[in-house]
Amino acid sequence: xxxxxxxxxxxxxxxxxxxxxxxxxxxxxxxxxxxxxxxxxxxxxxxxxxxxxxxxxxxxxxxxxxxxxxxxxxxxxxxxxxxxxxxxxxxxxxxxxxxxxxxxxxxxxxxxxxxxxxxxxxxxxxxxxxxxxxxxxxxxxxxxxxxxxxxxxxxxxxxxxxxxxxxxxxxxxxxxxxxxxxxxxxxxxxxxxxxxxxxxxxxxxxxxxxxxxxxxxxxxxxxxxxxxxxxxxxxxxxxxxxxxxxxxxxxxxxxxxxxxxxxxxxxxxxxxxxxxxxxxxxxxxxxxxxxxxxxxxxxxxx
Length: 302
Prior knowledge:
Strand order of the largest sheet: 8-7-6-5-4-3-12-11-10-9
Mean pLDDT: 85
Number of strands: 18
Shape: elongated
Helix content: 10-25%
Number of domains: 2
Distance between the termini: 42 Å
Largest sheet: 10 strands, antiparallel
CATH topology of the largest domain: Nuclear Transport Factor 2, Chain: A
CATH class of the largest domain: Alpha Beta
Radius of gyration: 21 Å
Low-confidence stretches: 140-156
Strand content: 35-45%
Order of helices and strands: EEHEEEEEEHEEEEHHEEHHEEEE
Structural class: alpha+beta
């Protein structure tokens, strides 16, 4: 890891911990370049601090971060056999809660850092770098301490039906709550040709010349939606979807394959939103191995 314009990758990575809610178990960080999203890494809270994983490897951390005893806001980051301490004291003192201050800039010895919050998605830009660091996918709150009741008395939480999942997803999506909406996506999603996410400006693809359907991972797709939400503005987003009358929103069970869009299998649950002729959104839900309905195919050209 090398220094770039005063900010080392060690510092940037550790800085993200300032935006990691204490009651969240994990969060995702996607590094977006000028030509689209790059690597996504996952922060997982541990008893000793935090482990950092590549998004596609959940077994072996690529780095560990732990607080230095007796030194508040100083963290030790270890990558392979190299360790380095980073002092976040000044940054912690200047940073304000993004929920109350969604657009702020702080100045450190290395340069300026701009923090922009759009709902549960946070964009970080470090002076001198062309990259944008996108924090998203904040994990669920830790489970409460074990109950005193016998284990057999605790019933597993029932999974929502396909239609229930579709309704809950749409409610979150229409409100611009990408954190809640993102939980309904499968690990990989196929985006049907001519969807908005095929446009380079949202970062899901590196070119505007996509010639067919595109399959991407959930983190990359949600980073694209975060970019779209930022561009549109949450107020305009919510207003546009709130204006769609209920009769234009349908949830059906597919009677045959590839209807109403490619990739549909018989029995899939299809959420279709058609506010105007020839434009709309279609989300295809399919149960995973745990019986949870997840979006596996989508088309969005509204």
